[in-house]
């Protein structure tokens, strides 16, 4: 029997121990909760990081030696892509092959069901990861060979020799080419692209082996990293797109003494299919030049192709703000189609003025272009002519525009300008490239007018500059200009203006005179 008072003390100790246990249990539970909450937060953070930085997961694996066959251009309605693939696999069963298409081909391509052959659809699908539509994520080899439809591989030595030749010429060329045997031989061309002037110019290369572009069917081999560092590596037409981009980078291609046979000549079996293919190729070429901002192509045979504006379309640029057209901000000059339309309009208007007995002269920046370039200034966007106010009644078109715009028999639009007291002749109702006619009249031996614009060249000048008017070459014809045009221009623009070109509003955009 416990001594008196012992039992209560024991109970108190037991109660304290029980409370401590409950407290310890609660602490453990809280620690477990904190641990799992922390784990959950970490998982959510990693998921968020992976979501906002997908590029860290989309980097391709390290490239291995070898060549991937890449087939890009073929027609859905008739092609020999499965045969091309089989011909390469016959020579080397493990040969990597990738077929790319903008959308899923229909009828479907029947490709070998092996891991080293894959079809990559370039158009992203909303329910698929981005990497599936990015071909650079699927090429695991150091080199890629661009192979056209209908090609047949006859030997493993074809690709091996191309690779050997590439390595032997590395540092001197960035691409090597093997001709595809066809009715038209592979031709070596030089290509010069001026994005500033919106122009691509082809010419026959002095060498038959080393050039910057090719005409004809060929297998092209280059490094994978070089191909996929281009801004549009698989744009169509493939070789046109490829050589425009590579010529801008100063790359060259060497034609090798290697060739591939063509299993199908002609490639398409009917004239109807050929017609469809030709129309698609024409549309692809038009879209390519629009995307690349090329509006004029000079071919090796001297012919020209235009991909810009015309009388039936709007001009290539919108409303001009602060005397600085939008193309100057793109580091480009006036599109060549616009310059051509301005030349045509100026020649036409001057002919009308001369026929009607309206005295005129080249004014402002137009005269400056004639003095400096014998043409329109390469970045100008209109043509300015001065006319004698008293001669306006001599021209029916100018006299009658007071009652509204007139579209003449050639499609040019004559109107009184809404901006002020002068006249404007537009290229067409659709295309508003124009010639402005500024009426002046003599007053005490000075040529003046009733409306002035906030342009530094818009000033009065002595009439003796117009007596006499002198012929000056301009835009492919002869126009009349003030006598002593240098003094006339320096009066309007400042000393040395002919020798020191500048954009119309240097405060907004300065001319880079180093280019």
TrEMBL record:
* All residue ranges annotated as the FKRP stem domain in the record: 60-299
Entry-linked InterPro entries: FKRP_N, LicD/FKTN/FKRP_NTP_transf, LicD_transferase
Sequence similarity:
Belongs to the LicD transferase family.
Q: Give any Pfam family that matches.
A: LicD
Alphabetical GO biological process terms: protein O-linked glycosylation via mannose
At the top level of its lineage, which domain of life is listed?
Answer: Eukaryota
Q: Which residues cross the membrane?
A: 16-37
LicD/FKTN/FKRP nucleotidyltransferase domain residues: 356-391
> Which keywords does the record carry?
Membrane, Transmembrane, Transmembrane helix
Can you quote a single GO CC term? Golgi apparatus
The answer to keyword Ribosomal protein applying to this record is no
Q: What is this protein called?
A: Ribitol-5-phosphate transferase
